[in-house]
Amino acid sequence: MFDTQVLYVPTLVDEETRREIMDEVAKKATNDMVFVEVGAFVGGTVCHLGQRLNELGKTPKIFAIDNWVCSEVSPESLEFIGTDKDFLKAFQDNMERTTTAHLVTTLKGDSIELAATFEDNSIDFLFLDGLHQHPYNENEIKAWLPKMKADSTIAGHDYCSLPYMPEMVSRQFPNHRLTSNRASYIATIGKGLI
Length: 194
Description:
By secondary structure, the chain is an alpha/beta fold. The protein has helices at 15-28, 44-56, 75-81, 87-97, 111-115, 136-144, 165-172, and strands at residues 34-38, 61-66, 104-108, 123-128, 148-157, 177-178, 184-189. The chain is built from 7 helices and 7 strands, in the order αβαβααβαβαβαββ.
């Protein structure tokens, strides 16, 4: 379906997640949908999604949430993503470079606190890749669940790299599935989006 390669934005999210989740979300998107990414970092994932949506001529609302204080990023990762630790500026630059900015509303703050600002039953797709701590992640899912529409999808990154994640995800979403490399989970609510 996609004829072009997206302009690559260095990211710590794997290609399988971008292709198997973000590409599929873009295909199913309609202009009246609402997408949220928690843990936007420098924008690699949301830029990928935005570029796919641009290619398809679709304009759903996308909210990128982060506090843009990434204190535990390794020096190797910083070198790979090419930033001097001004993560918000890197994110904004990538939004402009990939012509994705018109789709994205940036919200700076804590995921759980910002979840409270969304109406219940208002979100079609949620991607979680922010603060990686337990029990924070379980509380985060609980905060966002009421915000999801009856037929929606929640996905999250770092499934196999965080020891507590598989059990927590299985408890919250017994019928979840994984990307081909097992890096991300996909949980459908109702009929789901993807």
